[in-house]
From TrEMBL, chains A, B:
Entry keyword annotation includes Transferase: yes
Native species: Nesidiocoris tenuis
Similarity comment text for this entry: Belongs to the class I-like SAM-binding methyltransferase superfamily.
UniProt KW tRNA processing keyword: no
Ranges of residues in domain PRMT5 TIM barrel: 29-278
Residue ranges of domain PRMT5 oligomerisation in the record: 454-622
PRMT5 arginine-N-methyltransferase domain sequence ranges: 287-451
Keywords: Methyltransferase, S-adenosyl-L-methionine, Transferase
Protein name (Swiss-Prot/TrEMBL): Protein arginine N-methyltransferase
Listed InterPro entries: Arg_MeTrfase, Arg_MeTrfase_PRMT5, PRMT5, PRMT5_C, PRMT5_TIM, SAM-dependent_MTases_sf, Xyl_isomerase-like_sf
Length: 624, 624
């Protein structure tokens, strides 16, 4: 899958003739330009502190471009000297007025988004004015985004950024806070995004990586940070390359800014395009293409019948079923010594057989192991049973018995040696595998084997303003006002930053020999924040031991390479929680049930206490 | 106004015969008893750790009392040995079951509330189970409260509390956290309340006072903390007395617990009743009786006409009008020297004259000062104008001219020397005094005087779970889902704790000589938290300088004793914010306007960032 920037733009400090500038950029391979909204000849100067600057003519006519060109070829910039938090009251008020005037004009032009430079961390009044714009309800469908430009480092080493106040190295600031403070004051508004400006000096990698949890709309690569290779062409340092290639995984749009220092401006964007293509996708994300960052509802295969399409997609997994076959093979060898191979027959029950892939795998495993088997294929979905009956007739033959029933209610004619099932969800037990297998294990022999023999869920705290907003803005039918934050979502992870390493949450073992089986769970975990960050929830994973050393995992560190059956889950929290580096994030998770339903509840207890989410399963539950 | 406990109860460890116990308590002056819900003879013991304790008979029959006696004469207690956060899993699960069983039975009895002892700070699983109960929707109207018993000190010096684990003095804990953690996990649920148990050792006064911001349902006074006076009667230490007398200001219900050590149990409650009567009400609260803790909507006298009833109430203020008279008197003396007293005539305009109290005061002041005046009484409310015309005819005579108009639109026949108005709200400018007086000052002479000449608003961060819940549960017509937290309320302060001293917010001066009048405001303030506490918003006050040293104030420190025209305001925040002692609470307030409306926005920026409240005045605004 080829990676390329969604868009490539050229940042132009002065564009007296906008059409010519767009044409020039286009000739060099850029499909849009970023220019100051105020016309350079009409630009109001901050030094005059002209309180009447708001009056009179200050902008080029909108007739210079057609509406769709304004939308797709131009990203305007607000006047860089605006300071809505200036201690000088007159200047602050003038900035406010011009800020609103420019935003209104940008809206008039119908642009997608407007870039605004941040220069400092202290921006409450800017946030107030941003809110005013973000929350204004217009009758038109156009709702421009506001893209805040933040440098990766507060050291003004980019020569072209002469508007940035020079600071000592000693007062180096973590510029992520400039963004974080504003967006929290704007309640993480979905139309507020980041324009990340690469600086020559980069902060350490951990701090840089944190930006991947933010909604980066544009990555600015200044020409001044390029080095020159032997051929005279521009190239980036290793550290810059690494970061750009990580951005490539999300096809982040790029904006090249600054003077041409390498013959032609086209060399810069060509180089970046090359980097994007070289970017390597980690194993756990190789099958995400087309699904990244899209929240999906988890399946409820116990309550709802899956459709043919769903079966077909999952049956194609190249890893999952071969590992199941592998597990059955090893179990058969363990249960039947070579000497009894000819005489003994193992009874295998595939519970939740679906359209039969585990039956097929079991037959193949038995052949490979040279052991005799008799197989029951138990399935509750009447539509899938039709497929099973076909397969029995066409392929499997008499060794397979197809049974149409709910495994929890089946009155089996005999007990089995091996109970095979694939009832696991992205969060392990979240498709009710424990409850189903507790029901099915009554027809497993005392020394029988369950495949899987155990599974575990995992969580880690994460930052993703994007997922938070996706969850917030979905139209769902929750009774409770914050219901959207009280359910889990399945998502191929793109725009996210993991605040602390993964930890194990719940574990289930089968068969369950406990005298009083209880699948409720209650666990508290402590994570340590690796950097200052804002937590928007958790990602959840699972792994499973099918049999002995045969395992499947979607935990990134132990990912089963090539497997695509499961994406991780996103578990939101209602209010984002800011955490400092080194701070303990303490969380509590419950798995609760009543007669009809099973659900999770969760709560943060440190660094500050959230309310308990999904009380009584009020917003989400798995139906038994 | 006499203060007395809402209810007086007797805490009884064992009540084999409930009717006899109630009778005994009644004979001693107690109108209810607090008893264990589980019958003592049937009590399940924690030491046996009996996982089957939940089965079988454990409670006395409900037939022993009538339904209304259960409701008014009995407060049951949950079994004190329950520990829903025990590290022992079996014991924890058993506690959970019995907890729910007992709560369900309490609900069956139709009691108002049930007492549960807390023993420790770590209670996430209890919070989860409490939520389960608090959020269960029943078809009946009975919704019992859950009253968590917390000792004022973690030292188990109350001999009768033998269930408390003994701790070293060194591990003294701030028990407020036991409560605070649970209630935050339960999202400050309105049916979760405090039973505060006085201990022999009391924490310092600052920590004790914090409890006044919590919903204290019952104050437990153990007999063991009483001293014996010369007459052999029970008495409390000065520190205990002080605290009990503060509780008296809210008529907190009292529960006496422990063995009779002073002849008769009636002596204890008599002593406490006496203390309640002796409690002194601070000046700023002397007129609160009957209004405490009830949130009211602020008036909008500019947009709506006040009713006769409202005028009548406010006209009775014994302080406000005499101070206005005083101010007019001093202004007249300053403007007209003795030598001109016979010849000069001062023009006074009373703008917003209402039913005329300021006109009357001005006439009295002129007589007192022996100066000639001509008075215009300007009023927009046509109904009040009728009263003014009556008063002119009956009392005032020709020196008063009644004008029916909006002061902002009046075309005055001459300019005045003194412009008198009473347009101030509880938060100073919140009834649009600045905008009204800016309009009216065109007919004030260049050297003329405005009474008031200035006013200032004040705020302080506060804790009051009660106000937060009142605000949350009011049925208002807000478009925005969190609109109830985006408006101000007027409230006579009772159940509240001030986290830091008052600071000044905005100031307005009249006449406003600025060339470009701008009544928008933007200010950031820093407060220092005096104790660990949970902030639920702000209280707001104002003061005003009528003329020179003539002032009115509802700021507690400078309160105009006897004045009752204004209660403070409560300004909520959407999410409670926990703050640590010594931490800086940084807040930003804006006063914003457009052509039709004026509104406030507010935001916390430290210790953590809240979203900005009331963006664009979406939930509340004053109509121009």
């Amino acid at each position: 899958m080829s990676r390329k920037p969604k868009n490539c733009g050229l940042d132009v400090a002065v564009a007296s003739n906008l059409n010519a500038t767009i044409q020039l950029a286009h000739d060099c391979g850029y499909n849009f330009v970023c220019v100051p909204l105020a016309h350079p000849m009409l630009r109001r100067d901050m030094k005059t502190r002209d309180v009447d600057a708001v009056k009179g003519r200050w902008v080029r006519t909108d007739l210079v471009l057609g509406a769709s060109e304004w939308q797709y070829r131009v990203v305007p910039r607000l006047s860089p000297w605006l300071n809505l938090d200036s201690p000088n009251e007159a200047f602050r008020k003038n900035s406010e007025e011009i800020f609103l005037q420019e935003l209104q004009f940008a809206h008039h032009l119908g642009i997608r988004g407007i870039v605004m430079d941040l220069h400092q961390r202290h921006n409450p009044n800017l946030a107030q004015c941003l809110n005013k714009r973000l929350h204004t309800e217009t009758s038109t469908y156009l709702r421009e985004e506001i893209w805040l430009q933040i440098p990766t480092s507060s050291r003004a080493t980019n020569s072209y950024r002469n508007d940035v106040i020079e600071t000592d190295d000693e007062s180096e600031e973590d510029t992520w806070h400039w963004w974080n403070d504003v967006r929290l004051m704007c309640q993480s508004h979905a139309r507020l995004m980041v324009v990340l400006e690469l600086t020559a000096d980069l902060p350490e990698e951990g701090l840089l990586d944190r930006w991947h949890g933010e909604p980066i709309e544009l990555l600015i690569v200044p020409t001044s940070i390029f080095l020159t290779n032997k051929g005279g062409f521009p190239t980036l340092s290793k550290a810059h390359q690494r970061f750009v290639m990580k951005c490539a995984l999300r096809n982040t749009a790029v904006l090249v800014s600054g003077a041409n220092r390498h013959g032609s401006l086209k060399h810069y964007i060509q180089y970046i395009r090359n980097l994007y293509q070289k970017a390597e996708v980690p194993p756990s994300r190789q099958h995400d293409a087309g699904f990244e960052d899209t929240l999906q509802m988890p399946l409820q295969p116990l309550a709802d019948h899956l459709e043919s399409f769903t079966y077909e997609v999952f049956e194609k997994d190249p890893v999952k079923y071969s590992e199941y076959g592998n597990a059955v093979y090893k179990a058969l060898l363990d249960r039947v010594p070579e000497s009894e191979a000819a005489t003994a027959t193992q009874v295998i029950m595939v519970v939740g057989a679906g359209r039969g892939p585990l039956v097929t795998q079991s037959i193949l495993a038995a052949k490979e192991a040279k052991r005799n088997v008799r197989i029951y294929a138990v399935e509750k979905n009447p539509n899938a049973v039709q497929t099973l009956l076909d397969l029995k007739k066409e392929d499997w033959g008499e060794i397979v018995t197809v049974v149409h029933t709910d495994m929890r209610k089946w009155n089996a004619p005999e007990k089995c040696d091996i109970l095979v099932s694939e009832l696991l969800g992205s969060f392990g037990d979240n498709e009710l595998s424990p409850e189903c297998l507790d029901g099915a294990q009554v027809f497993l022999k005392d020394d029988g084997i369950s495949i899987p023999s155990s599974y575990r869920s995992f969580i880690q705290p994460m930052m993703s303003m994007k997922y938070y907003n996706e969850a917030r803005n979905l139209k769902l039918n929750h009774h409770h006002p914050t219901g959207n934050f009280e359910q889990t979502y399945v998502v191929a992870l793109g725009s996210s930053y993991m605040i602390a390493p993964v930890q194990q949450l719940f574990e289930f073992v089968h068969p369950n020999k406990s005298p009083a089986i209880d699948n409720s769970r209650y666990k508290s975990l402590k994570f340590t924040a690796q950097e200052d960050s804002t937590m928007y929830g958790f990602t959840g994973y699972f792994d499973t031991t099918l049999y002995k050393d045969v395992r499947l995992s979607i935990v990134p560190e132990t990912f089963s390479v090539g497997m695509f059956s499961w994406f991780p889950v996103y578990i939101p929290i209602q209010e984002p929680i800011y955490v400092r580096k080194g701070e303990i994030i303490e969380v509590v998770f419950w798995r609760r049930h009543d007669e009809k339903r099973v659900w999770y509840e969760w709560c943060i207890t440190n660094p500050r206490i959230s309310g308990i989410h999904n009380v009584n399963g009020r917003s989400s539950a798995m139906n038994l």
